[in-house]
Write a structure and sequence with these properties.
The strands form two sheets. Strands 8, 9, 10, 11, 12, 13, 14, 15 and 16 form a nine-stranded mixed β-sheet that branches. The longest helix has 15 residues, at about 75-90. The chain is globular, with a radius of gyration of 19 Å. The two termini are about 35 Å apart. It has helices at about 25-30, 50-65, 75-90, 130-135, 160-175, 220-230, 240-245, 275-290, 305; strands at about 5-10, 10-15, 35, 40-45, 45-50, 95-100, 115-120, 135-140, 180-185, 190, 195-200, 205, 235, 250-255, 260-265, 270, 300. By secondary structure, the protein is an alpha+beta fold. Helix 2 packs across helix 3. Bound molecules: ligand PPE. Ligand PPE binds near residues 194, 195, 215, 219 and 255.
């Protein structure tokens, strides 16, 4: 990872090398943390953070689901992001807020531990490669099931949950694929290891509904709204793996992955990126880079610029 100058940690900007935690931290032992992934883009009007408020609101929801009280409000965390963006001076970056039970007591119960909060920022290029963005990637349906709603609340973007994703992508990459697609315990399509799945069939776009053990993706919400505004029929429903194999187009989306086409699933050829995927990818990239007025409301600018 490319190091940058500062990290925001518990209310202060500290040098990158000094943003450390004790090995006794609860979050390290039990995965008891929540985090976000946010992208800031270089636009004609300066650096814009895509849907910053929604990301921080989801962080707050994730914390609530872990019985964790965040010591900072959404507004304070947004200000912290802007302070960090200003301090590191990168026109584009990925922002990673994380809150976790820190050093105090060990033992699974989280009581008695402070909640530590940090925000990192660094340049992060395409998640699944430039070639993947253009030509699509190969994905494998994982033998690992996505954590179910009564295992860990899947609406929480919790650090511990990502062992599930790590196993899935690890298996897929070892088998020669680029990404994993996880199914729910009862066999429906859930998420990629770090993305939401969409399929296109006969002009209709479908994506798993929010009860299918998926993260309530902010990019998912964005793509749904863009697709509907462009006049596509879009359904949120239970999907099975056959829907992937027989689809006209499959793609995945997420903050890191943006909109990435999938050209093959389990050695079944879906095909090169199709027209719907290409149109949505272009609309998404135009929106986040500030090149589209139509969905400009999702770009948030540094407070001083907005007031100016
Ligand atoms: N599902 C999962 C499991 C997931 O991790 C993400 C984001 C999404 C869906 C899409 O959510 P959203 O970003 O709100 O559209 N994954 C983040 C972490 C990636 C990582 O490797 O770390 C991300 O895209 O930033």
């Amino acid at each position: 990872m490319q190091e940058t100058s500062k990290i925001w940690m518990n209310g202060e900007l500290v040098d990158w090398a000094d943003a450390t935690v004790h090995v006794g931290a609860h979050g390290l032992h039990y995965g008891s943390g929540v985090f976000e992934g946010i992208r800031a883009y270089d636009t004609e009007r300066g650096t814009a953070v895509f849907r910053l408020t929604e990301h921080m609101a989801r962080l707050e929801n994730s914390a609530k689901l872990l019985y964790m009280e965040l010591p900072y409000s959404v507004e304070e965390l947004k200000t912290a992001c802007w302070d960090l963006v200003g301090a590191n001076g990168l026109p584009e970056c990925y922002l990673r807020p994380i809150a976790f039970f820190g050093y105090g007591e060990l033992g699974v119960g989280s009581q008695g531990n402070p909640v530590d909060v940090a925000i990192m920022s660094w340049p992060w290029g395409t998640y699944l490669g430039e070639d993947g963005m253009t030509n699509g990637i190969r994905a494998k349906v994982s033998s690992w099931q996505r954590v179910g709603p009564n295992v860990i609340p899947h609406a929480a973007k919790a650090t511990g949950v990502y062992v599930n994703s790590m196993l899935a992508i690890g298996e897929a990459v070892r088998a020669g694929y680029e990404e994993a697609i996880l199914l729910t315990h009862d066999g429906y399509i859930a998420d990629g290891s770090g993305e939401t799945i969409f399929v296109v069939k006969d002009g209709v776009i479908a994506t798993p509904d929010l009860s299918a053990s998926i993260l309530p993706g902010i990019t998912r919400d964005t793509v749904i709204q863009i697709a509907q505004d462009l006049g596509y029929q879009l359904v949120q429903k239970q999907l099975i793996r056959t829907d992937l194999y027989l689809a006209d187009e499959v793609f995945m989306c997420g903050t890191a992955a943006e909109v990435t086409p999938i050209r093959e699933v389990d050695d079944q050829v879906v095909g090169p990126p199709g027209p719907v995927t290409v149109e949505l990818q272009q609309a998404y990239l135009d929106t986040v880079h500030g090149r589209s007025e139509r969905w400009a409301q999702w770009l948030e600018y540094a407070p001083s610029r907005t007031e100016a």
